[in-house]
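WARN no homologs supplied; continuing
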Amino acid sequence: MTHPATAAPTREVTGGIDTHGDTHTAAALDATGRLLGHHQFPATPTGYTALLDWLRTFGPVVLVGVEGTGAYGAGLTHYLRGAGITLVEVDRPDRSTRRQHGKSDPIDAQAAAHAAQSGRATGVPKHRDGQVEATRVLRIARRSAVDQRAHTQTRIKSLIITAPEPLRAQLRALSDRELITHCASHRPAPASAADPATDPATALLIALRSLARRHQHLTTEIAELDSLITPLVAAINPALVALLGVGTDTAAQLLVTAGENPHRLHSEAAFAMLCGVAPLPASSGRTHRHRLNRGGDRQANAAIYRIVLCRLRWDPRTRAYAHRRTTQGLSKKEIIRCLKRYIIREIYAALLTQHDLHTAG
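OK structure emitted
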């Protein structure tokens, strides 16, 4: 730690913070990028206050770059934003940088400060104190339940594959819904009163009943979460839900990706890059082409893909566009990439318009 006793009180300071579960490491730079000092603080409200006070001992804090604003740094980000500090979100250093300069918390904090000061990091952190944040946490619970239900159904099918032939033939003829209902309500007759689970056939029926009841419980849980998420999303942005091909789940994902403060996205192109639908140039010499963007929020990318598929099936304008581009020699994948980019324009406009209405109201 460098003591700021000789620091000029009017010197502008840029901070960088490397966040962890229990501690945050801060670094301070002057206007020329010179390191003024670094120090570690506990990841607690008291630590947040001490961190900001420490940065201010070097001079007025004009900018702070924070790693992990949506994870370990969420609490600190909320505190600094409430204190009126200008924040930018900083990605962790890439592997080549770490190979050259090493890895430690002070080094990462200093790198975060340099990224903020140089303008390499420009992302504005999401606000996490509104309805969009409520939607995000509910969707985490829902997605976990959906994944567990699918895993449970897979286990049921795998047990049926190895079941005795009479039972196997009986259960394979049932639909998925009938299978779950049958297995959940079936009461196997014990082969041995002393220990009914010693018989493989009886144990199999008990296992199927347990898994089927778990499947039913998860289905009920998903329905309860949907009953909370659906009106919440409709209240946040009814214009987004009204777009063709945009259902509740798709709209919820796009709202979470944009955040409570969609104006943090400086342009439509920035939102396209965030969602991974902005084609990247891959030209060389006389060859001029673009390639698929594999970056960005892949869940948002998947949501936009579902919108495209829906419109290709039901929207006459989209079908006409696809036909025209096909006659021009584009493949189906290339047409879908173009449609994703067009759909981003509608979504971005709906996000900003509704946010402005809420702000004005």
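The chain has a mean pLDDT of 88.
OK
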